[in-house]
Structure formats: C-alpha cells, structure tokens
Amino acid sequence: MSTSKGGAAKGGGGKKKEVKKETKLGMAYKKDGNFGEWYSEVVVNSEMIEYYDISGCYILRPWAMEIWELLKEFFDAEIKKLKLKPYYFPLFVTENVLQKEKDHIEGFAPEVAWVTKSGKSELEAPIAIRPTSETVMYPYFSKWIRSHRDLPLRCNQWCNVVRWEFSNPTPFIRSREFLWQEGHTAFATKEEADEEVLQILELYRRIYEEFLAVPVSKGRKSEMEKFAGGLYTTSVEAFIPNTGRGIQGATSHCLGQNFAKMFDITFENEKGVREMVWQNSWAYTTRSIGVMVMTHGDDKGLVLPPKVAPIQVIVIAVPYKDADTTAIKGACESTVYTLNQSGIRADQDTRENYSPGWKYSHWEMKGVPLRIEIGPKDLANKQVRIVCRDNGAKVDIPVTNLVEEVKVLLDEIQKNLFKTAQEKRDACVQVIKTWDEFTTALNNKRLILAPWCDEEEVEKDVKARTKGELGAAKTLCTPFEQPELPEGTLCFASGKPAKKWSFWGRSY
Ligand code: 87F
C-alpha cells in the first residue's frame, strides 16, 4: 500500500530542495467495492486502530480514544444528573459466583475467558475475566441494601470487558476486549426502574444521533433477542446500508426481580416488610465508534461529525513561490489561537517535510471536518480558504468573520451528516406483508418492517428458513414508533393475526 513518492520538490525560494520522502496516501479499496477491506483500511489509515498480534484485540490510538473521551464526557455528565455514582469493581470473578447466574450464562459460557495459572503454577481454582459485571456486583448490592433508605442504588463503571468471540472479529464492531460503561441500578418499585430504562435509552439515542450523527430506532427486543437474565430489553438499533445489516447500538434492560432472587437483594419497606428490589442494567460500548465510521466514511477515508472530532479545524500553510513564509506562519498561528479561544478544537500541521497536498490528504483521511488553507493571496486579502470534508465545498472567509463562520460551518456539517445518513437509512426501509416480499427484501439488503404475531416459535422458524452463508434473519426490535396496524393484518411469516410492526433483517 505505502509506496514512496519522488524525493525532490520545489523549496521556498524556487530552488530545488531535497524533501524527506513522502509516503503516498490514499485508499486502495472503495466503500461500494469491498466494504470489509475498505473499513479495515479506514480505521488503520486514519490512525484510530493498530492491529495487534492476538486476533480480535486492537490498539486504540489517540484518534479513537479522544472520540471515546468526548462521548464519555457527555454521557457521564448526563448520568450524574440522574444521581449515578462512579464505582470500580474488580476484573476477576470466581467460578462459583459466575455460576450463580448459570441459567442464562449457559449460552454465553463459551465466550468466558479464564485465568488458570500464575507463573508456572496452576491456580487452585480458575478465575474468570468479567464478560459483564452482574455477578461481580450483585453480591455486594445484597450487602449494601438493607432498608428502603438505601434505595435507589445507582452504580456506573467505565471499564473493559472480555468476551472470547469466535466469529469474524472486526475493529470496534466485534472485538474480544472492548470498552464500555455499565450501569447497574436497584429501586424499590418497578415504576422507578421502568422510568430509568427509558431515560437511559434516550441518552443512547442522543449519543448516536446528536454526537455520532447516526440515525437509530428505539424499540423493544423480542423474547428471543432480549437479555435472558432480565425482564425486558430495550435498544437503539442502527443500520449499515452497504452490508444491509442491522446493528445494536446500545441496550437498556429492566432486569425485574430475577437477580434480586438469585443474589438475595432485599430491603425493608416503610412498613417493616421485606421486599425484593427491582433492577436495571445498561451499556454502550466502543462499538459506537465503528458504527459511526461505517456510516459516514467515504473513499477518501474517515468523515468525522464535528461534535466528536478530536480536531475540528486543521490549519495548513500554503507557502508557494516567493511567499513571505514568516507572515504565513504567523497567520496560521493566530488563526489556531483565535479558534481555540472560542472553544473550537483547532490545530495546525507545521511539519516541514510534507507538502501542503500531502497534508490535505492526510487530514482528509483522518476525517477532520474543516481545513483552513492560508497562502500569500489569502494573507494579502485578509481572508482564509475553508474546505469542508463532507462535501468538498470551498469558501473564502474574511478573517474578521472567522469564528462565526467556522461555527456555522461545523454546525451545518453535523446536521448534513445526520440528514444524509437518515435519508440513506430511510431509503433502505421496506414495509412488507408477505413471506415472498420478505425474502426479496432480505436479498436486497433492506431493513424490513413487517407485521408480526410476536410468537417465539415463529421467530425461530424465520431463522431456520433464512439460514445461509450470510447468516439468518432475526428481529432487530419492535420500534416504539409504530405505524398504524389495520384490523385483520396478518403476520408475514405465520399468517396468524399480527400484533405489531417489527424490524427484521440480518445483523452484526
Ligand atoms: C458473554 C459472556 C458471559 C452478554 C456475555 O447488556 C455473559 C454474558 O451476560 C452476558 N454476553 N451478556 C449479557 C449482558 C447483559 C447486560 N450486562 C450489563 C448488558 C448491559 C450491561
């Protein structure tokens, strides 16, 4: 991929000057050509990800971690308003405690990673690495909760978890170790728990739609797809048009009293009577970054929504011919300073061993929303040239209006990315009524909205009938926003009376 460009380039005074070899930039794969290869290339070339020598594990570089930090800053402030407290529980869990959850852990068991040795000696008993922290936390909930005055208990932790997946690992999307926040809460009443499930789901929608500019549908999971340990599961679901696959963006579960029973988490109510608590758990992960990359990236690389861009504006000097390089450097410097002063994340690329053209490609690859070019003509006219990453638009802006104009442009890019993604997603939605329409839509990579009888057996049957190389179809969610369901509408798969509209499709 990385071939080198010729060594000589014109220097400042028109003389031929040796410039350090520049690595050629660019993407070998196209988004509409080979999507999988394109995605790997984008996350690596944009310097978000470095591959690691353990399959399914990736190095998250600053360009990814800074996005994660921006999301975290928003989410953490919001949950603190909801009285969530920060905790950190250990990474390890004993077999004994993990097994307390054995009913629903059964299906997950193959993904649990174990520590069996220290140095050369076998541990007395193997210790599991947390795949999620219910079993780590809830024995202590049982200890800490005594009376109704101890409720609600609201814990959140930001941490890593390990799930030893075997199917096709993909950076951010499916990795064996990932970062997340996990919220675990306990209430005296179901009403309080129900309310929180939706408050958190709304925050997840905002992460995707307002920050990552990715449209999602809020809805409820089917009995087959819900978290088996809980009462009901809600989620935000995104869709990747290129692969025709749905992808779960985040989940917010009401656990009911199942874990309270298992872990004996009870409280004495005002009347002195023992009751079991009502619990929730919820999480979003670094997968969200991958969904954003897939949604907005293009053939030049990453495209970042301004709200999550570590650098929103990159300033590049264009000192060609006999230009006054000192004055240009000064203008770049003061442009960055002015923007930073107004809270805009701006930086300049001062490297002298790269040409302006190389820098343009480099920062396009990294998806920076705005590029400011400053050359001799701009200097003379007291203006700068601004280039938008999303649509390539170029505008010349008087320096006096700089901050306002940059704010307007960043805002427009944020809105346009969301709007474009929403239009693309909506164009993939297909309402179907019959099995034939369903299979055709599935083959056409559609996000299918179908009338369904909501029976588990029927979902199993659909899975079985659509099994194949690309994976079976399943329900993604039943969206809260339901179109009208006319009396007498039949289930597309069973022919029984339909109870609801649900999203179906292949998924990640
Ligand atoms: C993998 C191995 C072992 C998912 C697993 O969604 C256990 C599990 O319990 C497991 N994969 N799950 C379900 C996780 C449920 C729940 N946990 C807290 C969440 C949100 C955060």
UniProtKB/TrEMBL annotation:
Q: Name one GO molecular function term.
A: ATP binding
**Which PROSITE patterns did the record assign?**
AA_TRNA_LIGASE_II (PS50862)
Return the InterPro entries for the record.
aa-tRNA-synt_IIb, aa-tRNA-synth_II, aa-tRNA-synth_II/BPL/LPL, Anticodon-bd, Anticodon-bd_dom_sf, Pro-tRNA-ligase_IIa, Pro-tRNA-ligase_IIa_arc-type, Pro-tRNA_ligase_II_C
Q: Which UniProt keywords apply?
A: Aminoacyl-tRNA synthetase, ATP-binding, Ligase, Nucleotide-binding, Protein biosynthesis
Enzyme class label: ligase
The EC number(s) this enzyme carries: 6.1.1.15
Q: Which GO terms describe its biological process?
A: prolyl-tRNA aminoacylation
Q: Which SUPFAM superfamilies match?
A: C-terminal domain of ProRS, Class II aaRS ABD-related, Class II aaRS and biotin synthetases
Entry keyword Nucleotide-binding: yes
Q: Give the reactions, separated by semicolons, that this protein catalyses.
A: tRNA(Pro) + L-proline + ATP = L-prolyl-tRNA(Pro) + AMP + diphosphate
Give residue ranges for domain Aminoacyl-transfer RNA synthetases class-II family profile. 66-305
Tell me which PANTHER family the record gives: BIFUNCTIONAL GLUTAMATE_PROLINE--TRNA LIGASE, PROLYL-TRNA SYNTHETASE
The protein, known as = proline--tRNA ligase
Organism encoding this protein: Miscanthus lutarioriparius
Q: What lineage is this protein's organism placed in?
A: Eukaryota, Viridiplantae, Streptophyta, Embryophyta, Tracheophyta
